[in-house]
Amino acid sequence: MNKPKKIRLLSYQNAHNYGAVLQAYGLQSVLKEHGYDDVKFINYNPCYLSSRYIPIPLKKIFFSSWNGFRAFIWKLFNYPFLYLSQKKRNVAITNSINNLLYQTDKVYISYADFEDENLDCDVLICGSDQIWNKNITNEYDSIFFGEGKYYKGRLLSYAPSTEVDTLTSENLLEIAHKLKHFDAVSVREKPFRDKLEDITHQPIAECIDPTLLAGYKIFDKISSAELGNEKYILIYSYSGLDSFAKKLIHGIPNYEKYAIKVLSLGPVGIKEYFRKGVVDYDCSVEEFVEYFKKASYVITNSFHGLAFSVLFHKNFYVTFVENKYIRCLSLLKNIGLENRMLYTDTSYDWSDIDYKLVDNKLNELRDKSLSFLLDNLK
Fold first, then answer.
1. Which residues constitute the domain of residue 351?
2. What values do phi and psi take at 261, rounded to 5?
């Protein structure tokens, strides 16, 4: 079979989210490293996705539910800072997207934009990221399943993800039905794969996230050099620098010698807005990579916070978040570090991680995932 000349990708690459952009860059880079020069993302940016990153409209403050007068005043007082921090964040990440990713000239907003299309490519890859997560897409988005008249060629999925513990039997049946026209299917998490295989009775591969597939050298090339040489503990968490994170910090040997850096997962209020030296809410994607590269310790509960901690060989802990932890736990089990998933009632210590063993396991996963990808492009 001839090597495909044109590969097109469907993912969340336009999301103003560090992990979304980095997984896209990882997959694009791996394909280009293996001789596929014409690799582009379909510039699909549906409203349900882009609206998640719009600075909060003032009217939402007045008409959203709030518990009492004090909560209303807090929202109103913090509104300018929530708005400005989100806007600055959007600008920084948009610039990174433009610098790092190749996309089609045409922009698609909805399914209707694809109806009269005849997509000119040899292979279409759906993935990675949470493109099959109904909690994001509202209803399962047919575009992310390659459904429609716009494309009739070879169709693959590479490591799409979802929130496995929120899936109903109806959700699984719907996904299984949509997979019938794929030439090859892979997903990111083992529990997701197992559930789908039980329904489809077809082989489904488990593939690692593109950031892990690409490896640290690819990301080392794009890391910014803005942070200097200060030693610090990095917090990248849905809950920020909360009481549990502070407790973990105090368990680090000689923790007083380290600065604390907090990477925000979203917009911030007045308190964080004026703590720019501690809380970074508008860094670029390249700066995000640098934060992990230079950190001495990491506390996170984000999947890509975990991924970059592993890539850059950091001493880290992942804290538990309900409905989000399975993505992290699945990876931790695969690389033999499930003891780095921390629940509030479990003990911990900051002993060094044996990354020789971790890298051996990760390389095995990388080889299997790369074989799935390249074998199905032939």
1. 225-359
2. -120, 130
Task: Tell me what the mean pLDDT of segment 7-14 comes to.
Answer: 97
Counting DSSP H helices and E strands in the chain, the numbers are: 15, 13
Alpha carbon distance 177, 222 (integer Å): 40
* Spatial CB neighbours of 172, under 8 Å, sequence gap ≥ 6: 195, 196, 199
Number of folded domains in the chain?
2
Instruction: Give CA–CA dist 128/114, Å, rounded.
Output: 20
Tokens, residue 98 = 């433009």
Q: Is residue 62 part of a domain?
A: no
Per residue in 89-133, pLDDT tens? 999 999 999 999 999 999 999 999 998 888 989 999 999 999 999
Same domain, 153 and 30: yes
Task: Residue 187: name the closest of 215, 216, 167 by CA.
Answer: 167
Q: How far is CA 366 from CA 210, 313, 373, in A?
A: 9, 16, 11
Are residue 197 and residue 255 in the same domain, yes or no? Answer: no
Q: Could you give the angle at the alpha carbon of 300 between the alpha carbons of 296 and 305, nearest 5°?
A: 85
222-239 b/e (C-beta count within 10 Å ≥ 16 → b): bbbeebeeeebbbbbbee
Degrees to nearest 5, angle at CA 233 with 232 and 235: 135
**Angstrom distance (rounded) from CA 52 to CA 27:** 24
Asked whether residue 93 is assigned to any structural domain, the reply reads no
Average pLDDT over residues 146-165: 92
First and final C-alpha spacing in the chain:
6
335-342 contact pairs (CB < 8 A, 24+): 335/310, 335/361, 335/362, 335/365, 336/361, 337/310, 340/316, 342/248, 342/317, 342/318
Phi first, then psi, for residue 350 (nearest 5°) are: -100, 40
pLDDT tens, position by position, 264-285 = 998 999 999 999 889 999 999 9
The three-state DSSP-derived secondary structure of 119-179 is: CCCCEEEECCECCCCHHHHCCCCHHHHCCCCCCCCEEEECCECCCHHHCCHHHHHHHHHHC
DSSP 283-323: --HHHHHHHHHH-SEEEE-SHHHHHHHHHTT-EEEEE--TT
Q: Are residues 210 and 250 in the same domain?
A: no
